Amino acid sequence: MNRHDIIIIGGGPAGLAAAAAAREAGVEDVLILERDVRLGGILNQCIHNGFGLHTFGQELTGPEYAERYADKVEELRIPYKLKTIVADVSAERVVTYVNADEGVQTVQAGAIVLAMGCRERPRGALGLSGYRPAGIYTAGTAQRLMNVEGFSVGKKVFILGSGDIGLIMARRLTLEGAQVCCVAELMPYSGGLNRNIVQCLNDFNIPLRLSHTVTRIHGKRRVEGVTVSEVDGNRRPIPGTEEFYECDTLLLSCGLLPENELSRAAGVKLDRVTGGPVVDDKLMSSVPGVFACGNVLHVHDLVDYVSEEAERAGRQAAAYVKGGGDDAGTVVTLEAADGVRYTVPQFIRPDSMADSVTVRFRVSDVFRDRSVAVYYDGVRVSKRKKRIMAPGEMEQITIRKDGFAAGVPGKITVCVED
Hints:
Elements: E1 2-9, H1 13-24, E2 30-33, H2 62-75, E3 80-81, E4 85-89, E5 94-99, E6 103-114, E7 118-120, E8 136-138, H3 139-147, E9 156-160, H4 164-175, E10 179-185, H5 194-201, E11 208-210, E12 212-218, E13 225-230, E14 243-246, E15 249-252, E16 256-258, H6 261-265, E17 290-292, H7 303-323, E18 332-337, E19 340-344, E20 347-348, E21 356-363, E22 367-376, E23 379-389, E24 395-400, E25 411-417
Parallel strand pairs: 1-2, 1-6, 2-3, 6-17, 8-15, 9-10, 9-15, 10-11, 18-25
Antiparallel strand pairs: 4-5, 5-6, 7-16, 12-13, 13-14, 18-20, 19-21, 21-24, 22-23, 22-25
């Protein structure tokens, strides 16, 4: 069986950043496995700008941002395999992949970095009633058809869900001459960044209807319209609030799901909230030597944070390979409570942690003029006022090693309070 020190599964922004960081950390034998025909992942179809402000200090399009990291991989001469499907990953870090040139191959890895990204929630998971007419797309599929394949998806479009891809596609469709009737959102708040609401909806006078959902799709051969209803506090349609919108296309932007089938196959423990692996401060999963980063770990709002996180995963995978052992010692659990949905990482190891660890999280509702508080074993150690926090935008705190001078806590709690 062939062996590689580090195998990166996924050649998108997370995989490329992790591979480059691992090579720069001194590991020569790094291999990237990517299922698409080119490196760059989802960024290749994101032709809008807004990427790279944190990482490069300038505004780039998605393909430009991806090209920066793809060029770096080329400069570092990191090998990669395109059009390669990873079929299985075992707990012993054995990777099985298949492609047209080599057939089925099995390789042993010293460490694995999971960077498979995420996928969209399809119509079948939403319980929408009606036939199966043409004209129903996930927002990402429509984005690829328009930006990569050069096809128009419709002339009169209704968008369900206010995730960032849906908001961006509302603007894209308008610029291409389509009419976007409305964007409906099941929740009482948007799932996207505020800047995208302003730039993609408000600037083009596209209405956003919160606490509304599609309750019926009309049309047999092609979408002819949708019925939209207001929902109550339990997200159930309210009788008598139905409205009909004529349209020929329905775009679904109803959430992203980390793509963790391979993680499950390897026995990796998954977080029930994020849908991604449970990791420590080194981004190592419950399976020793298997690390995770990017949208396969938890869905990010900015690709700059994906790259930052992936670089950490790459460096830690390199340290694992060179150190040749598993972490031991004290484990401190991070708990999300009172308005905080989850934290990543979910626990830290104080004996081997860096001087500081960035903990990212999302809140469960829109909070105005509230504070993020951190408790060590029930004792508050910090409190920071925030003007506004929303589920669509990721928040973060920093845990410092010197903060344990008075003793290592058994549990760290992150919460929202007055």
